[in-house]
Design a protein that fits this description.
Layout: H1 3-10, E1 13-19, H2 26-36, H3 45-51, H4 57-68, H5 74-90, E2 93-100, H6 102-106, H7 112-130, E3 133-141, H8 146-156, E4 165-169, H9 181-189, E5 193-198, H10 204-212, E6 218-221, H11 229-238, E7 241-244, H12 246-251, H13 263-268, E8 272-275, H14 280-283, H15 287-295, H16 302-314, H17 320-334
Parallel strand pairs: 1-2, 2-3, 3-4, 4-5, 5-6, 6-7, 7-8
Helix pairs in contact: 1-15, 5-7, 16-17
């Protein structure tokens, strides 16, 4: 392990782009399938991992939704969440804001409260076990229609005191943010934070729609923003946080090789970029693996990784006093003076 790898290992950080269903490791998939007597189209853990050969977002989503079918009970969702936070704690994650896709579960007959209740119980267990703070973000599936999103928002109402925001994920191509303008306005009226996937496979115009029509507080992915210099300037000047996912970008062929990843360019252009793991069970690694994948190509140095870690807290939905405490922890870690 290099000096930089060791530095990354202990660097306090937040994770802002993590789909909890995407942290379903094959071993847990098999265990839950057995517990719930659910048939899955794989005979071994090795066969599952061999199937994780994606050429685009839709290829991934097809197997992602199939895997999620083993999640049936509140205990299942709790176990899934606890397993993620065990991995996050090992990567020095101090705070995580995680996505879940209720429609993936309600559409197969699993009540909203089963998924939400289990995930929230897992978050509480992680706080007790590891001291990691966490917030939950409900995502709408963009390949479904606006009515389905509104129905999901209504189903979430009893839980909104425990959900920090709403997001937008699933197939980006052909499903522009404009499709969900009204449901995002309704969520904003309920006091929820707003985030959206845009500019992963979709064009820069989708990022502009997310900004102008959805009025997002944070941009998930955003890679293709770099194709539009005016948009880059706008994002930089506004301090918009981008939740970037290197290993996901590589696995889904958003970049052809890690040496071509735009994270360094994002930082040099003044963008508040962060590094996250997206769907780590499918894309080959949790948050530190994503940091190290970038480090391995010599694009960034210790100072850059400190900037990325600081950005992760600055871009979080934590109260300002908690952000300040986490930034002080980073300063202490790197040996900078901490001022009260």
């Amino acid at each position: 392990m290099t000096d930089l790898d060791t530095f990354i290992a202990g660097l306090p950080k937040a994770e802002l782009h993590l789909h909890i269903e995407g942290s379903l490791e094959p071993e847990l998939m098999f265990a839950l399938a057995a517990r719930n007597k659910v048939a899955i189209p794989f005979r071994s853990v090795e066969e599952v991992r061999a199937a994780y050969s994606f050429t685009n977002l839709q290829d991934f989503l097809d197997i992602y939704y199939a895997g999620a079918d083993v999640l049936r009970t509140e205990e299942d969702f709790r176990d899934l969440t606890v397993a993620y936070f065990d991995r996050a704690a090992a990567d020095a994650v101090r705070h995580a804001e995680i996505f879940f896709d209720p429609q993936t579960h309600t559409d197969r007959g699993i009540p909203f409260g089963v998924a939400a209740g289990g995930i929230l119980a897992g978050m509480q267990a992680a706080k007790a076990k590891h001291g990691i703070s966490a917030k939950l973000i409900l995502c709408f599936l963009r390949h479904l229609d606006e009515d389905a999103a509104f129905a999901t928002l209504r189903a979430a109402e009893p839980w909104l005191d425990r959900i920090v925001g709403v997001g937008l994920d699933s197939s980006e191509r052909g499903h522009p943010p404009a499709k969900f303008e009204r449901v995002f306005a309704a969520a904003a009226g309920m006091g929820l934070k707003l985030v959206a996937h845009a500019g992963e496979e979709g064009p820069p115009a989708y990022v502009e729609e997310a900004l102008d029509l959805l009025h997002i507080d944070r941009l998930d992915h955003g890679n293709r923003s770099l194709e539009d210099p005016l948009l880059v300037t706008r994002l930089a000047r506004s301090g918009m946080t981008l939740t970037v996912c290197p290993l996901s970008n590589l696995k889904l062929c958003v970049v052809s090789e890690m040496a071509d990843h735009p994270i360094e360019r994002m930082l040099r252009l003044g963008l508040r970029a962060t590094i996250n793991s997206d769907d780590p069970a499918y894309f080959g690694g949790y948050v530190n693996a994503n940091y190290r994948a970038i480090a391995a190509h010599g694009q960034l140095d210790h100072v850059d990784f400190v900037t990325l870690a600081r950005n992760s807290f600055l871009g979080s939905f934590l109260p300002v006093e908690d952000v300040a405490a986490q930034l002080a922890a980073i300063d202490a870690y790197v040996g900078l003076p901490v001022h009260g």
